[in-house]
Design goal:
Strand order of the largest sheet of chain B: 3-8-4-5-6-7
Largest sheet of chain B: 6 strands, antiparallel
CATH topology of the largest domain in chain A: D-amino Acid Aminotransferase, Chain A, domain 1
Distance between the termini of chain B: 53 Å
Radius of gyration of chain A: 22 Å
CATH superfamily of the largest domain in chain A: ATP-grasp fold, B domain
Structural class of chain B: alpha+beta
Oligomer: heterodimer
Strand content of chain A: 15-25%
Number of domains of chain A: 3
Low-confidence stretches of chain A: 380-385
Strand order of the largest sheet of chain A: 13-12-9-10-11-14-18-16
Distance between the termini of chain A: 33 Å
Shape of chain B: globular
Number of strands of chain B: 8
Number of strands of chain A: 18
Number of domains of chain B: 4
Largest interface: A-B, 25 and 28 residues
Number of helices of chain B: 31
Structural class of chain A: alpha+beta
Chain lengths: ~425, ~675
C-alpha cells in the first residue's frame, strides 16, 4: 500500500492530552503514531490490557447515567485533557458533555445529544432547509398505524393498492440497529412493546450513499463519498462515475449540514439518497467512525490514515498547514478503488468453509478474513454488525469491483 | 539440528489431500509474499496494537497450511513469530506454559484456533531445531514437547479415518501434514521406546478398558525402527503377540473356526504349549485376544484340568477351580466368547481372589446367567458389541461382572465426571462383592438402584439430575455403564440433601453411599463459603490418624475415600477429585508413601511442584497409584478418620507441616481465601 503521507509530523508539540472515548485499537495506534498524548476512556474490563501495555486508561461505564458523571470530567481535567473524541455511537454525548465543560461551550453537549436522537436530528435538518422524508416520533402502535395510514393516503393509494412501506427506527442506536420495515397493519401488531418510543419515517427511493466528511474550524478538509452497492453488505469508494459526477452537489449539501449542526471539529458520517432526478434526500448523520470498515477502504483508496485524520480534525490545536500537508486531493489523489463485501452464512448451521480458487486468483481480490466456522447455530444479525467475514477488493475500475461484490455476496462460503 | 535421515513415515493420505486447494507453487509464492508483508506490519506495530494485525497473519498462515509447500514456506518465518507478537495476549503466548496433551484438541479446533495451534508448533520446531532461541525454553525441552505431541497424536499423524475426519477432511489433513513435518525434522530415535513405555504405564494399572493401549500398540508397530532399546522391542513384541495369536497352533490356523478344529485333533503336549503361551501373554500384559476365548471354551469342554494353566492363575486360582470346577466351567462357557474375550483377565483375577468359593458370590454370579434383564438395559449392554456373534445381554453382563470383580483397581471413570461412582464400584468389588452383585442384579432387572440415606430409602428411578447430567461416556465397561447413571443420580441427591449443613456434605454422604465401614470422623478444610480454615489442625489430625509414626500403629483396614484438589503441571487448581487411600507403607527405598486408587486411570500425571503420582516402580500393586506421604497430603482437602484410632497429633514436627502448607498455598491454595 502506498502511503500518501509517510513522513507526516505535527508541526508543533501539543499541550495536554486528548481523551479517546471507547475502545478502538486503530484510533489508539493513530494517536500513538502522530505523537499525540492520549488517555483511553474504556468500559470496565478493557483497561487492564491497555495499562499492561503502558497506555493511560480511565474506566468508565458509558451506559450508566447518574450524578457521578462529574468524576469522569475530573479525571480528564487531572490529566489536562483538552478535547474528547468519540469513537463509538454510545460515546458521542459523553464527548459532547466533556467538551462542553472543558471548552466552556455548553452547546457542544446539546449538539452531542442532537447527534444521538434521530428524530431531533431530522427535525434540525428540516428546519435548516435540507430535504428529508416525512417522519414522526411515535409512542405506541396506534401512532404507527395512524402514520402508516396518513402516508398512504398522501400517496393517493386506494384500497387494494399495495401499500407503500414506512420505516421504524429507534431514535438512539447506531446505523441500522433495530431498524424494521412496516408493510402492513399486521407488522405493526407484531411489534414488541419495548421498541417504543421510537420514530417512523416515509420510504425514500433512490441510490443510497454515505459521506465521511473531515471537518476543522467548520471547513470540510476532505470529503469521501462511499457508494453502498447493497446497504449492509457491500460498498465501494470512491464511488462509480454516476455518483462521482454529483460530487459538487453533494459537497454543497454537506456544507449545509455542517452549518445546520454548527459542526466545527471532527468527523461526520451522513447518509443520503439520490433519486432518479438527481435530488438529494438527507437520511441521517452520525458523529463517529462509520461502520462497514469504511475507514479501512478510505485508507486503501487514498493512502492516508482516516483514524489519524479524525484525531487531527477533532483537535482544536491542529493548524491549517498540518491539514494541508495531511490530506490528499479528493479527486486527483485517488490511488485506486477499494470495495468490500460482508459475508453472512446462508444456512442456520454451518461447519465448513469453502473459499473457491476463482476468488483467490482474481487480480481484484485483495484479502478475506474468514475462518473455519464454529460448529454451531449462526447468530441472529443485529444491525449490520455481526458478519462472519469480509472480502476486500482493490483495483482501478469501480464498476468491475461492484460486479465482484454482487457476485460474491451471493456465494455460500459456509457449508 | 534437522535430522537429515528424515524419517519416512508410511502414513495414509487423508481424504482432505485430494481436495482442490489454492496451492500451486505460484500461489504459495504469492501468499508467502503477502504473509511476509503482514508479519512485517505486525512486527512494526506498537505492543498495544498487535491484535489489529494478527488477523491478516492468521488468515494467510491458514492458506499456507493447506499444502506441504505452503507449510514449508511458512516454517521459514517461524523464528520471527514470537518477537513479532503472533501470540501476543493469547493462550499460546508462553511456550513454556503449553501442554502437549492439549495440542491435538487445538489442531482440531474451530475458527482461528487450529491455525494458531499450528503456528505454535512451528515456533516450537524453530526452537527445537536451533533456528530461534527462547529464554524459558531450551531446544531440548522443545524437542521433548514435540515428541510428546507426536505420541499424543499418533492417530492424527497416521491419518486414520474416523467419522470426525470424514466430516472435516481439510482440518484433519492439515493436522496430519503438520505432525509429519515435525516428525521429519526432530530426532525420532527412541520414540517407539516412549510409546512402549506409555503402554507399560497404562497396562501396569491393569485397567478394564484397554482400547488406548491397543491403539498405541498398533501405532508403535507402524513407527519407524530406529535404534530403540532391545528391551522395548521385546516388550512390544509381547504386546503384539498378546493381541494376536500367542500360541503355536493359533498361529497355524486360518481363523477361529479353524483353530477350534485344530485344537480338537491336537496332541496333549501341543495343547499344553498352547495354554502356556496364552497364559504368559495374558499375565505379562493384562491383554487378551479372541483366540484365547476359543482355547478356554475348548478346555472347558474337553480338559477342564488345564484351565488354570491356560489362565496362568496362582495357587489361589488353582485352589478355587479345584474346589468347584463345574461352576468355573459353567460361568466361563456362558460369558467368555471371542467377542467378550476382554473379560478373560478379569475372570483370572476373580479366580485368584477366591471369590467363587463364597456362597453368596457364587449365587450372585449364577443369578446373572438367567436374569430377566430389563429391555432398556438389554439395549444399553448390546450397544457396544458387534452384531452377528450370538451375544445376549446376560453374557455381556456376566463378562463385565468378571472384569469388575477380578480387576477392582482397574475400574475407570472414562470421560465422565463420575469419580464418586467409579470409586464406589471399586470399593464394593474389593470389600463387599455380594452387595455389588446385588446392585448389578437390581439395576439390570429393574433398571434402578436403591440406597438408604439417613433413614429414607431413595431410588434412582425417582431421581433426575446427576453430576454428569445423564450424559455418560458409552465407552465404559458394561457394569459401569449399567451402574454409573444410577449411582451418579443418587450421589447428587445425597449431596443435595446434605447441603446447607454448614459442613462438607461428604461427611454424611460417603458413609451413606459407600457403606458403614467408612470411619465416622470427617475432616475438611473447606467450609461452605469455599474458604480454607483450620489447615494446621487438619494436617495434624491426618498424621495422627494415618502416619505410622504418630497414629499408634493403627492399620488402615477399609479404603478411606478422600478428596483431593487436583492441580495441573503448573500447580494451578483443576478441581476436586475423589480417590481412595488404600494403604500407607514404606516403599522399596524405605520411604513412606500413600498408595491410592485413582478412578481417573491416567498413568502419567503431573500435578506440578514435581508431584508426579506413579503407578509402578515403587511397590504399587497393579491399579494402585502412589506418592510420597507429604506430597499426597499437600493436595488433600477432606478425609475420614476413626476418632478411636488417633495417636499423637501434637508430636508432628512443625517443619513437615510447614513444607506441606507452603506446597498447598503456592498451588491450589492460590485459588482460595485462607482464613
Amino acid at each position: 500500500m502506498h502511503e500518501y503521507n509517510p513522513g507526516f509530523a505535527l508541526s508543533a508539540p501539543r499541550q495536554g492530552k486528548i481523551a479517546l472515548l471507547g475502545y478502538l485499537i486503530e484510533s489508539f495506534e493513530a494517536a500513538h503514531k502522530l505523537g499525540l498524548d492520549f488517555v483511553a476512556v474504556v468500559p470496565p474490563g478493557f483497561e487492564v490490557g491497555l495499562q499492561n501495555d503502558g497506555i493511560d486508561a480511565i474506566v468508565w461505564d458509558f451506559d450508566l447515567i447518574n450524578d457521578q458523571s462529574d468524576a469522569l470530567l475530573q479525571q480528564c481535567l487531572d490529566r489536562n485533557v483538552r478535547v474528547a473524541v468519540p469513537l463509538y455511537e454510545e460515546c458521542v454525548e459523553w464527548a459532547g458533555a466533556l467538551n462542553a465543560r472543558i471548552q466552556n461551550n455548553p452547546r457542544l453537549f446539546n449538539r452531542g445529544l442532537l447527534f444521538r436522537d434521530k428524530a431531533m436530528m431530522k427535525r434540525k435538518a428540516q428546519m435548516s432547509g435540507l430535504r428529508v422524508g416525512v417522519f414522526e416520533e411515535v409512542y405506541n402502535r396506534d401512532d404507527v398505524k395512524r402514520f402508516f395510514k396518513r402516508v398512504n393516503e398522501a400517496l393517493m393509494n386506494v384500497d387494494g393498492d399495495v401499500e407503500d412501506p414506512v420505516h421504524l427506527k429507534p431514535t438512539r442506536a447506531a446505523g441500522s440497529v433495530g431498524h424494521c420495515i412496516i408493510r402492513s397493519n399486521k407488522n405493526i401488531d407484531e411489534l414488541p412493546d419495548d421498541v417504543f418510543p421510537c420514530m417512523v419515517e416515509s420510504h425514500l427511493d433512490g441510490q443510497e450513499f454515505s459521506v465521511e466528511a473531515f471537518i476543522h474550524n467548520g471547513k470540510i478538509w476532505f470529503m469521501n463519498i462511499n457508494e453502498y452497492v447493497h446497504l449492509g453488505y457491500s460498498q465501494v469508494l470512491p464511488p462509480g462515475p454516476e455518483l462521482e459526477a454529483e460530487r459538487a452537489k453533494i459537497r454543497r449539501a454537506v456544507e449545509k449540514l455542517v452549518k445546520a449542526f454548527n459542526m466545527d471539529n471532527g468527523v461526520i458520517h451522513p447518509e443520503y439518497f439520490i433519486d432518479a432526478e438527481g435530488e438529494l434526500n438527507f437520511g441521517e448523520v452520525a458523529n463517529r467512525i462509520p461502520g462497514g470498515h469504511i475507514f479501512d477502504l478510505i485508507h486503501r483508496a487514498y493512502g492516508f490514515d482516516p483514524f489519524a485524520a479524525q484525531l487531527l480534525c477533532a483537535d482544536p490545536q491542529t493548524s491549517d498547514a498540518e491539514l494541508i500537508a495531511f490530506f490528499p486531493d479528493e479527486v486527483n489523489g485517488i490511488q485506486g478503488y477499494a470495495g468490500n463485501v460482508m459475508i453472512y452464512p446462508q444456512k442456520p448451521r454451518v461447519t465448513m468453509l469453502d473459499v473457491p480458487e476463482e476468488l483467490l486468483s482474481d487480480p481484484l481480490y485483495e484479502k478475506h478474513d474468514m475462518f473455519e466456522p464454529v460448529n454451531a447455530k449462526v447468530a441472529e444479525r443485529v444491525g449490520f454488525g455481526n458478519h462472519y467475514g469480509k472480502i476486500n477488493f482493490y483495483g482501478d475500475d469501480p464498476e468491475a469491483i461492484k460486479q465482484r461484490l454482487i457476485q460474491w455476496e451471493k456465494f455460500d462460503f459456509y457449508k | 539440528m534437522i535430522s537429515t535421515n528424515s524419517t519416512e513415515l508410511h502414513t495414509k493420505s487423508a481424504a482432505g489431500d485430494s481436495l482442490p486447494t489454492a496451492t500451486t507453487a505460484q500461489s504459495v509464492a504469492k501468499i508467502s509474499q503477502d504473509f511476509d508483508t503482514a508479519l512485517t506490519q505486525l512486527e512494526q506495530a506498537a505492543v498495544f496494537a498487535k491484535e489489529r494485525y494478527q488477523t491478516d497473519v492468521f488468515q494467510l498462515a491458514g492458506q499456507l497450511l493447506q499444502s506441504n509447500e505452503g507449510m514449508l514456506a511458512l516454517q521459514q518465518y517461524a523464528q520471527r513469530f514470537d518477537a513479532a507478537g503472533v501470540f501476543h495476549k493469547g493462550p499460546w503466548e508462553h511456550p513454556d506454559k503449553l501442554m502437549p496433551q492439549l495440542v491435538g484438541g487445538g489442531l482440531l479446533g474451530e475458527t482461528v484456533y487450529p491455525v494458531l495451534e499450528s503456528l505454535s508448533e512451528l515456533r516450537m520446531l524453530a526452537i527445537a531445531t536451533g533456528k530461534s532461541e527462547h529464554a524459558q525454553m531450551s531446544a531440548q525441552q522443545a524437542i521433548q514437547f514435540l515428541r510428546d505431541v507426536i505420541i499424543n497424536n499418533l492417530d492424527l499423524m497416521f491419518g486414520d479415518s474416523s467419522e470426525a475426519s470424514r466430516q472435516r477432511p481439510q482440518i484433519f489433513a492439515r493436522a496430519q501434514r503438520l505432525l509429519n513435518l515435525i516428525a521429519a525434522q526432530i530426532p525420532m530415535a527412541g520414540l517407539r521406546d516412549e510409546v512402549v513405555a506409555e503402554i507399560g504405564f497404562i497396562q501396569a494399572q491393569r485397567p478394564i478398558l484397554v482400547q488406548r493401549s491397543i491403539d498405541l500398540i498398533h501405532y508403535a508397530e507402524r513407527l519407524p525402527k530406529q535404534d530403540e532399546a532391545a528391551v522395548s522391542s521385546e516388550l512390544l513384541e509381547t504386546y503384539v503377540r498378546a493381541l494376536g495369536k500367542p500360541g503355536p497352533l493359533s498361529q497355524a490356523s486360518a481363523d477361529l473356526t479353524d483353530y477350534r478344529r485344530l485344537l480338537r485333533t491336537a496332541e496333549s503336549h501341543q495343547i499344553e504349549a498352547e495354554c502356556k503361551a496364552f497364559a504368559y501373554t495374558l499375565q505379562e500384559t493384562g491383554l487378551s485376544n479372541p483366540w484365547h476365548a476359543v482355547l478356554l471354551r475348548f478346555l472347558g469342554r474337553q480338559h477342564p484340568e488345564l484351565l488354570a494353566m491356560a489362565l496362568g492363575v496362582n495357587d489361589y486360582g488353582i485352589a478355587t477351580i479345584s474346589e468347584d470346577e463345574s461352576l468355573a466351567v459353567d460361568l466361563l462357557r456362558v460369558a467368555i466368547t471371542p467377542a467378550t474375550h476382554a473379560a478373560i483377565y478379569g475372570f483370572a483375577g476373580l479366580l485368584e481372589r477366591g471369590l467363587l468359593n463364597r456362597p453368596a458370590v457364587a449365587a450372585g454370579l449364577r443369578r446373572l446367567v438367567d436374569l430377566d434383564i430389563h429391555p432398556e438395559v438389554t439395549k444399553l449392554l448390546l450397544e457396544n458389541y458387534p452384531k452377528g456373534h450370538g451375544l445376549t445381554a446376560n453374557m455381556i453382563l456376566l463378562a463385565g461382572t468378571f472384569s469388575v470383580l477380578g480387576q477392582p483397581l482397574g475400574i475407570g471413570q472414562g470421560h465422565n465426571p463420575t469419580c464418586q461412582a467409579a470409586r464406589g464400584i471399586s470399593l464394593w468389588s474389593r470389600h463387599e462383592p455380594n452387595y455389588l452383585l446385588e446392585l448389578i442384579a437390581t439395576a439390570a432387572r429393574n433398571d434402578l438402584v436403591e440406597i438408604e440415606f439417613e433413614g429414607v430409602q431413595l431410588s434412582s428411578a425417582d431421581l433426575l439430575g446427576g453430576v454428569a447430567g445423564g450424559k455418560i461416556d458409552a465407552r465404559l465397561d458394561p457394569v459401569s455403564r449399567l451402574l454409573v447413571p444410577h449411582l451418579d443420580r443418587l450421589y447428587d441427591e445425597f449431596m443435595r440433601r446434605a447441603a446447607l449443613r454448614g459442613e462438607d456434605g461428604h461427611k454424611w454422604v460417603n458413609r451413606a453411599l459407600y457403606g458403614r465401614q467408612i470411619a465416622s470422623g470427617f475432616a475438611s478444610i473447606l467450609d461452605i463459603t469455599g474458604c480454607v480454615s483450620g489447615y494446621e489442625d487438619f494436617l495434624r489430625l491426618f498424621y495422627a490418624s494415618h502416619h505410622p509414626d504418630y497414629n499408634d500403629e493403627h492399620e488402615l483396614i477399609y479404603p478411606n475415600p478422600v478428596g483431593l484438589l487436583i492441580t495441573d503441571i503448573h500447580g494451578r487448581l483443576l478441581g476436586p477429585h475423589a480417590v481412595s487411600i488404600l494403604r500407607v507403607a514404606t516403599d522399596t527405598d524405605n520411604k513412606l508413601r500413600i498408595y491410592f486408587f485413582n478412578p481417573n486411570n491416567e498413568g502419567r500425571q503431573n500435578w506440578g511442584q514435581d508431584i508426579k503420582p506413579t503407578v509402578s516402580g515403587h511397590g504399587e500393586v497393579p491399579g494402585e497409584s502412589s506418592l510420597p506421604f507429604e506430597q499426597f497430603v499437600s493436595r488433600l482437602y477432606a478425609y475420614h478418620y476413626s476418632p478411636y484410632e488417633t495417636g499423637d497429633a501434637f508430636a508432628v514436627t512443625a517443619e513437615a507441616l510447614q513444607r506441606i502448607e507452603s506446597m498447598a498455598r503456592s498451588s491450589w491454595g492460590e485459588a482460595y481465601t485462607w482464613l
